[in-house]
């Protein structure tokens, strides 16, 4: 009997990053129908940064969370409906309750890789309500495998029924993923998951490495639709896992159809590895910094790529855009 | 001391497939200059199917081989000028002599993976002239590792100074590549090379696997510019090999610049893994069949993907387009 792998598909959530959160309920409905036909186990829906995140700062969504979730809910029956939720962007009273009301099945409570503490209340609340909850550690390359395992253990303690770690900057090579999966699997009693990005062209290979090292939940989006260089390409992952003898439960022809539909309906440009993506992956810095970095680098007469690598050394994360000027000044003085 | 890897860049040859062989001498000159600045060791130029291949059957090139090669030659000094040449498409008298006259440095003599015999005269002729010659085995997934090693040994016997095997349909996973490289390395005295395609999203991972298994020559094109799902993406490969401690001699920033220039000058759409690419990679059938397959499948009321998989079982190769109708008829009878 072949080993089972649970696939979660955040096309309608991570993909929202690629189009400035402009997915409409109509598009969500169409794709959800196609994903249901392909027997995708979990369909994740919402603003790129999760429910409650729509704002001037990280991007205003075209549609309200409720309308997007409702459009998916009405078209999913065997496939489960999932959300991504970062406490702070989301609140229990407003957003989590809203998601419960609309009938979400799988709640993914996410945070920066070293801040599991902020997920405790949300995970606890949802578990009390009898909901399925997974913990998510983002930008995981910024923590050592040991720290990552400690943070994951906290989430398990809070009641998470699985922990997924994300390669948000696409910084890993397969051996990096294997090492972390092995560490988490040996430290936790609950299933371990992996979510990849393609900055170094390794998203599919990294995801396969995760599965081969013991991860039992992996994420993928059709055509890799997602932030920056994109995610692990779901229809390719399904093909490769099938070729390797794993059982994803997903129908290959139908997921190829779903990918074709998504491309036609809401993917204006299929994600690819741009030069910026490579530098982002190598430096481990969020590619969303690129516009600021280019502007500041030009102003101070330094190479934007040097700025990225220096930001990487200083472990800059989203929200620390002010560090860009600091780095550019320092680099221009060195010259 | 880090291990050296020799990179050959067929952006201006395999990329020609993606734009129906429409590269102009001006575009070639611009890219060659950028590749020279990036210290790319070998820049391969020409019609997608190699010198002498321009024809109604496989596609008429916009520019003559001589003009493309001359444009590159005039802009390369430290970087070497390479060609791809398939005996039959090319003749010694006309095309090989032409390439010698224009000053080509590296001659790659290529054939289907089981037909090394047809390269004997061309390899011998060039070696007599004192030229650098590599043998190339295309569609290598159609031969067993043992047969591939035998064919490679023939090329070595004819005088080839390296043998490169190509994953023309993008059908391999890393372990497939490792197995073949190990087999070739242990059977030959000359260096072994690998040329990947991205149908299963594995081109970079496969190429890294080749290097880690002992290949010392690998191919990559900027933005993966090439046939179907595209090639191993060169600027990503350089970044990943550097991260792993290999020495490619290529300047990372300058190859990123070359990639940006190529995208601007002659890449209308960056290659991506389409649904057809996945089916092509899984079935091991050349993706160029897609138009015929779609037409015939519609006519006989069968699924074009079933046609691909059946063609794969029958080991169809380019030139055997008549087999498509045969397969469609057989499938429609089964229904």
Automatic annotation (TrEMBL), chains A, B:
Return the EC number.
4.1.3.39
Domain annotation Pyruvate carboxyltransferase: ranges: 5-256
| Gene Ontology MF annotations | 2-isopropylmalate synthase activity; 4-hydroxy-2-oxovalerate aldolase activity; manganese ion binding
Asked whether the keyword Lyase is assigned, the reply is yes
Q: Which UniProt keywords apply?
A: Aromatic hydrocarbons catabolism, Lyase, Manganese, Metal-binding
**Which InterPro entries does this UniProt record tie to the protein?**
2-IPM_HCS-like (IPR050073), 4OH_2_O-val_aldolase (IPR017629), Aldolase_TIM (IPR013785), DmpG_comm (IPR012425), DRE_TIM_HOA (IPR035685), PYR_CT (IPR000891)
Answer whether the UniProt record assigns the keyword Chaperone to this protein.
no
Which residues are named in the active-site annotation?
Answer: 17
Please list the GO biological process terms of this entry: L-leucine biosynthetic process
Give the top-rank taxon of the lineage listed in the UniProt record for this protein: Bacteria
Entry-linked Gene3D superfamilies:
1.10.8.60, Aldolase class I (3.20.20.70)
Name of the molecule in the record: 4-hydroxy-2-oxovalerate aldolase
